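Ticket 4471: requesting a sanity check on a complex prediction with S-adenosylmethionine. Repro inputs:
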Amino acid sequence: MENLREILQRHGFRFQKQFGQNFLSDANFLRSLVAAAGVGGNTTVLEIGCGAGTLTRELAAAAKRVIGFEIDRALRPVLAETLADRPNAEVRFADFLKTDLSALEAELGEYAVVANLPYYITSPLIMRFVEEARKVRSLTVMVQDDVARRLCARENTPDYGAITAAIARRASARIVKAVPRAMFFPVPNVDSAVVQLTFEEERIPVLDAKCYRDTVRAAFLSRRKTLENNLMQAFSLSRERAQAVLAAAGVPDKARGESLSPQTLAKLSDLLFEEKQKHE
Ligand code: SAM
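Returned C-alpha cells:
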C-alpha cells in the first residue's frame, strides 16, 4: 500500500478530532495485532472505526470475512481505494453505537472484534458487548493506557472500578502490549495499550444479570460511603437487612465496594435478588 499520508492527502481528507481519528500505519505492528487477536481463515471479524483501512486490510488478509463500521463518510473514497484488493472486507458507514447488535449477530454468527477504538466511545462500546452481545468470542482493542489498566484491574487497587467488575462477569481481561503514542498519525497526547477480553460461557454465573449490574453500580456509588450505606440507598433496604445480606455474603462490616472481587459481588447480587423476590 502507498504511504498513508499520501493517500489521505490525495483524497483531500481532513482529520476530525471529534471522531477520535488517530490512524495506524506500521505494517509490522498491524500484523502483530492481527496475530494477537488470533484471527485465522475461519474467523469473522467485526472492526469498529476503519479509518483509512490500514488495519482492515491486514485483518482481511488473515480472516474469512471482515465487516467494518465507520462513522465518517468522508473516508468512503479512501477506503474504496485501500480495500480495492480485499473482496472479503465490507465497510458500513454508520455510527456503531446506533446499530442493531442482535440483527448484526444474526447475520455474522460467531465473531471476534478487533479495533483501534475511538477514545470517546471506548467504555460505552465495551459495555455494549458485555451487556448485549451473545455471539462475540473476543474483543482485541486498542485503548488509552489508563483505560487499559482499568479494564484489567484487580480488586483493592486504585484502577479497579465498576467497568472492571462488569466485564469480569463475562470475560477475562489482559493487557497484550503497550503501544507508544508515536505509532499513530496524527500523534495523540497519550500512550495506548492493546487489551484482550476473552468471553467465556457462564464465567461468573449470577441469578440475574440486571441485579448484578445494579449491585456493581451500588458498590461503586460513592467511594466515600461504606458498602452498607450504598446498598441501603440503591436497594431501598433497612440498615438491618443490608447488614444481614452483607453477612450472608461473607463481606466484613464497613467494607468498601472496591475491596470486593467480582465473585463476591456476584454472591451479593444473588442474595439481593432473592431478598427482592421475597418482597415482591
Ligand atoms: N482503524 C483505524 C486505524 O487503526 O488506523 C482508525 C482508528 S481511529 C482511532 C477510530 C476510527 O473510528 C475513526 O476513523 C473514526 O472516524 C471512527 N469512529 C468514531 N466514532 C465511531 C462510531 N461511533 N462508529 C463507527 N466509527 C466511529
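Notes from triage: The two ends are 63 Å apart (CA to CA). Leaving this open until the requester confirms.
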